[in-house]
Amino acid sequence: MDVAIVKYNAGNIYSVVNAMKRLGIEPVLTDDAEMLQKADRVLFPGQGQAREAMEYLKAHQLDQVIKNLKQPVLGICVGQQLLCRHSEEGDVDCIGIFDVDVKRFQPQKHEDKVPAMGWNEIYDLKTELYKGFGNRADAADAAMGEALQHPYSYFVHSYYVPLCEETIAKADYILPYSASLHKDNFYTCQFHPEKSGKVGEQILKNFLEIQK
């Protein structure tokens, strides 16, 4: 399987490269439009500032390349946010796959820290991306079964996507929000599956197995 990872001015890309290698995949890290279009799967990860990322993507015409991809695409962290309509981070228009605006967390009490950082449970899981979750029988061992029934993933973010029609996983921090989205061939995770242990590994496996 040919897996391409979008190369742009965002951090955290190499941890995703390493996660693919742990699954036996040698991904290609590229900003070449033809290579991205030809790949069987495309990963769009990132950490960084939304406005700076969008300026880079537009300058290299990668925003349109990503928008027109036909194979399964997985946006991770800032990658999820950049696939939305608009972000409050830098007040910038984004790629627009998902017709929803990215908001900044607003602390409601003293213990509400921004950015939200650490492990958090994801729930109300839908689509093939979460195949096997919630079903202990699908796991190879008891520990994995428990992880699938009560999946925790690793988050680091100051901005969130509100709940919407395309939400396929939820998480709670200050308020319920979209931990994951899906529309057509586009899937996303606000959390970092590449840093989320067995749960994240299963999600990445499921992504690779999604039928076009």
Automatic annotation (TrEMBL):
Q: Which SUPFAM superfamilies match?
A: Class I glutamine amidotransferase-like (SSF52317)
**Keyword set for this entry?**
Amino-acid biosynthesis, Cytoplasm, Glutamine amidotransferase, Histidine biosynthesis, Hydrolase, Lyase
Query: What EC numbers are recorded for this enzyme?
Result: 4.3.2.10, 3.5.1.2
Entry-linked InterPro entries: Class_I_gatase-like, GATASE, Imidazole-glycPsynth_HisH
Its annotated compartments are: Cytoplasm
Its pathway is: Amino-acid biosynthesis; L-histidine biosynthesis; L-histidine from 5-phospho-alpha-D-ribose 1-diphosphate: step 5/9
The Glutamine amidotransferase domain covers which part of the protein?
11-208
Q: Does the keyword Membrane apply?
A: no
The UniProt catalytic activity note for this protein reads: L-glutamine + H2O = L-glutamate + NH4(+); 5-[(5-phospho-1-deoxy-D-ribulos-1-ylimino)methylamino]-1-(5-phospho-beta-D-ribosyl)imidazole-4-carboxamide + L-glutamine = D-erythro-1-(imidazol-4-yl)glycerol 3-phosphate + 5-amino-1-(5-phospho-beta-D-ribosyl)imidazole-4-carboxamide + L-glutamate + H(+)
Active-site annotation? 77, 192, 194
Q: Mostly located where?
A: cytoplasm
Source organism, top-level taxon:
Bacteria
Checking HAMAP family in the record gives: HisH
Which protein, by its recorded name, is this? Imidazole glycerol phosphate synthase subunit HisH
The protein's organism comes out as Segatella sinensis
